[in-house]
Amino acid sequence: MAQENVFRVMLRMEIKPGLDKEFERVWCEVGDSVVTHPANLGQWLSHSEDEGVYYIVSDWVSEERFREFETSDRHLRHREKLHPYRSGGWMTTMNVVTFLPGVASVGTTHQDWESAR
């Protein structure tokens, strides 16, 4: 699939004080409900420098397929498990226009990236 066809969802999640590590653990546990969906291309969890703020980026084959997931029982169960940790946030969506791979990413696996951190 060409990178230009990627539909990207970005969530900003504000986590209740003191629950960061528990949120991260539960997010990893329930992540399969997203990444095993046939239209999902991958998902990332990032912790901001701002205390208690996380960003979740999720890529999809199309907006239509994401919207199917977004309204599914699978997504509702996923959200219910994360909701107790959340104090606020927002969501934005976008279409990837183009992708320029960095020289360090060519031929690099996720494991290589993790060990370089």
Automatic annotation (TrEMBL):
Molecular function (GO) terms for this protein are: monooxygenase activity
UniProt protein name: Heme-degrading monooxygenase HmoA
Show the taxonomic lineage: Bacteria, Bacillati, Actinomycetota, Actinomycetes, Pseudonocardiales
Q: Which residues form the ABM domain?
A: 7-94
Keyword annotations for this protein, in alphabetical order, are: Monooxygenase, Oxidoreductase
Q: Which organism does this sequence originate in?
A: Tamaricihabitans halophyticus
